[in-house]
Amino acid sequence: MKKYICEFVGTFILVLVSCGVAVISGELVPTSLAFGLTIVACAYSIGNISGCHINPAVSLAMFLNKKLELKDFIGYVISQVLGALAGACVLGVLLGSFKVLGTNGYGGAGQLADTMWIALLVETILTFIFVTVILGVTSKKEYQNVSGLVIGLTLTLVHLIGINFTGTSVNPARSLGPAILAGGTALSQVWVFIVGPLVGATLAGLFYKFVLSED
Fold it and tell me: Positive or negative CA dihedral for 105, 84, 40, 77?
C-alpha cells in the first residue's frame, strides 16, 4: 500500500501545483517549469518507494517492459486517477470554481491544435519522447542520482512545445481528474488525452524493449 499511497500523493501534488500554476499564471515558461519541477521534487521524495510514475502512461511502459507487475500496474493507475481527481478538487475549492482547472483541449480549447488528429499526434509524439527518456535514464545505475532531474527537465521540454497545441497532457490521469470536474468540452475531449499518451507510451515501451535495451 505504500507504493499506491505515494502514487496518489504524487499525482495529487502534480495536479494541484502544476495545474494551479497553469491557471494562475497562464504563461508558457512558468507553467512548463511548474510541471518539470514538481516531477523533480516528487522523484527525490517518493521515488524510492514507488518509482514516482504518477502517470498511467509511464506505468504502462514499465509494465510492458516487465518492470511492473499486473496487480501493481492496476493499483498504480487507480491511485494516480484518484490522486489527480483529489488534486483537481482541492484546486477548484481554492480557486472558487471548477470551470477552469488547467484542462487540456483542442480546437477552440487549444491555441494551435485545430483538429482532433493534430492533438492526438502531438500527445502521442510528446509522450513517446518523455517515456523513452524515463525508460532510458532509469535503466542505468550510473544515472540514478540525476534521473529525477533529467526526467523533470524532459517534462519541462515537452511542455514548452506542447502547451500552445493542447495544454500538454502526456499523462492520462493529469487530464482526466480536472476534466471530470470541469465537464463540458474538457470532458468530451479528454479521450484524446488518454488514448494519445497511452499509444505514445506503448511505442516508447516497444522502442526501448527492442532497440535500446541491452538485454
Answer: negative
- Indicate if the alpha-carbon torsion angle 103, 109, 111, 113 is positive or negative: positive
**103: left (phi > 0), else alpha (psi -120 to 50), else beta?**
beta
Q: Where are the alpha helices (DSSP H) in 66-146?
A: 70-95, 116-138
Q: What is the pLDDT of residue 141?
A: 83
For the question of whether the overall pTM of this predicted structure is more than 0.90, the answer is yes
Domain range for 126: 2-212
The pLDDT of residue 143 is 84
Q: What is the mean pLDDT of each run of 10 residues along the chain (215 residues)?
A: 96 98 95 97 95 97 95 97 98 95 87 87 98 94 90 97 95 98 95 98 96 83
CATH number of the domain where residue 160 is located: 1.20.1080.10
Q: Cell for 102?
A: 488547467
Burial 175-212 (b: 16+ CB within 10 A, else e): bbbbbbbbeeebeebbebbbebbbbbbbbbbebbeeee
CA angle 35, 168, 196 (to 5 degrees): 125
The tally of domains found in the chain comes to: 1
Long-range contacts, 211-215 (Cβ 8 Å, 24+): 212/132, 212/135, 212/136, 212/139, 213/65, 213/139
